[in-house]
Design brief:
The structure holds 2 protein chains of 2 kinds. Helix content of chain A is 0%, strand content 45%. By secondary structure, chain A is mainly beta. Among the domains of chain A are: 50 residues, OB fold (Dihydrolipoamide Acetyltransferase, E2P) (Beta Barrel), CATH 2.40.50; 82 residues, Nucleic acid-binding proteins (OB fold (Dihydrolipoamide Acetyltransferase, E2P)), CATH 2.40.50.140. Chain A is elongated and about 60 Å long. The two termini of chain A are 38 Å apart. In chain A, 34% of the residues are buried. The longest helix of chain B is centred in the last third of the chain and has 37 residues. Chain B has one domain: Ribosomal Protein S5, domain 2 (2-Layer Sandwich), CATH 3.30.230.70. Classes of the chains: A mainly beta, B alpha+beta. At the A-B interface, strand 10 of A face strand 3, helix 2 and helix 5 of B.
Chain lengths: 192, 244
């Protein structure tokens, strides 16, 4: 398949028996069609599967959609006894044009001893957390979870000095200016 | 036989010149100012995003909202009807199943209505949706045909209808032609496919005339789709070049 050609929505790209439909394409009957304007790319299929055919649009509105299992960055807006309300700012690598609402329930904060979780010692309003979407939720808020070592508070300001705190363990962050420690459910820092 | 020329020098089977400025609005996700002759519309696309009212949301697909703003005056029932036509057309063209629980908002602002404004709007919507990166099954394209002059529908002889230049069939009518027409047919199709997305008919016409008008409009749609395709591809290539 020539990759210098641009495809428009509705263009037939190949057979569904020879390719897998990737982003920017859809399958109808025995064929795969483009759904975006852009160059047609062919990539290796997963694990000996069929090659994946995709159309790379300059702007793909699909990036703005949140699905179960996505890792998102969210800002904590309210902390209650049983849940914390957040607004979801980024889905994966994409900054969302409009923030979505989400909640992290008490039992989804961490993986162990879920009944002993104190929400006020896990999150504070203004914290930026990394969470995973566990379900599409209800009434327009997504249900998120931070129950994994790489999920949790990534960025928080110190109450004492206003400086950005550094995680010292999965349960505490420390202000670099005053040395005061504050309880949070921290995400493991990325290995760099 | 002499081909009958219209007031602007076109023959019956000619459409007006097209132009498009894509991505002109900063705040909209997709936008285009599109025109055919003197008719021009500005379309902005916002979304997909969360609906303002949760009851509007559908769990398995996006909903498309269309707002039609006329160039002059408050919104009339004719504008509401155009919203319906545009919305129904776009619902078939946009891959709504890709965006569950979302709303895609399309705003059509008529800048100048010199005839065939509904088909111009549908073409503009196609380009604005491409600009917004909304996935579509195909490109919706539309064209309008009308029958000029008076006289009963039955009086049009079938052999007359085959020579578009000599009959009273006119493609892409301007406002003055629409004002004196006895029947108009607007056709919207997915570019390259045989089916019909939308057909809007007004006035009185016989069955043969209807088929002739829709065939003529389909040919016009083919011509428009060539233009749309070139314009969106050129923009993609320009954007890529600008990034490098």
């Amino acid at each position: 398949m020539a990759s210098t050609q641009l495809a428009c929505p509705g263009d037939r790209l190949g057979r569904a028996s020879e390719f897998t439909s990737g982003p920017g394409t859809y399958t109808r009957g025995p064929h795969i069609f483009a759904s975006l304007v852009g160059p047609v790319l062919q990539q290796e299929g997963a694990e000996g599967g069929l090659p994946v055919i995709t159309v790379r649009g300059g702007r793909n509105a699909q990036d703005q959609v949140i699905e179960v299992g996505d890792v998102v960055m969210a800002r904590v807006t309210r902390v209650r006894a049983l849940l914390a309300s957040v607004e979801i700012l980024c889905a994966g690598e994409t900054v969302l044009r409009e923030a979505y609402n989400g909640i992290i329930k008490k039992e989804d904060v961490r993986a162990t001893e879920v009944d002993r979780v104190d929400m006020g010692q896990s999150f504070r309003p203004g914290d930026i957390v990394r969470a995973r979407v566990s379900s599409l939720g209800d009434a327009r808020q997504y249900y998120l979870t931070t129950a994994a070592p790489d999920l949790g508070v990534r960025w928080a300001k110190s109450d004492a000095s206003g400086a950005i705190m550094v995680p010292v363990s999965w349960q505490e962050m420390q202000c670099p200016v005053t040395g005061v420690r504050e309880p949070r459910k921290c995400a493991r820092p990325d290995a760099s | 036989m002499r081909r009958r020329l219209r007031f602007d020098g076109r023959t019956g089977d000619q459409i007006r010149g097209l132009f498009a400025d894509q991505g002109i609005l900063n705040r909209a996700d997709g936008s285009v100012r599109f025109g055919a002759g003197n008719t021009s519309v500005l379309v902005a696309v916002y979304g997909p995003a969360q609906p303002a009212q949760q009851k509007k949301e559908k769990p398995d697909r996006a909903i498309i909202e269309v707002s039609w703003r006329a160039d002059k005056g408050a919104q009339t029932s004719a504008d509401a009807e155009r919203e319906l036509y545009v919305r129904r057309t776009l619902e078939e063209a946009v891959a709504v199943a890709r965006y569950p629980r979302s709303v895609i908002s399309v705003v059509v602002q008529v800048l100048c209505d010199d005839g065939s404004v509904l088909s111009a709007a549908i073409n503009a919507c196609a380009m604005a949706l491409v600009d917004a990166g909304v996935e579509m099954i195909g490109m919706p394209v539309a064209a309008t045909a009308c029958f000029s002059g008076s006289g009963s529908a039955a009086a049009a002889a079938p052999e007359q209808l085959q020579h578009l230049g000599e009959s009273h069939l006119q493609l892409d009518p301007s406002a003055s032609e629409e004002a004196t027409t006895r029947a108009t047919v607007m056709l919207a199709v997915l570019a390259g496919s045989d089916g019909i997305l939308t057909m809007k008919m007004t006035g009185q016409l016989g069955a043969e005339e209807l088929f002739a008008a829709s065939e003529a409009a389909r040919k016009a749609c083919d011509a428009v789709s060539v233009y749309l395709r070139r314009a969106v591809e050129a923009k993609v290539l320009r954007d890529v070049a600008n990034l490098q």
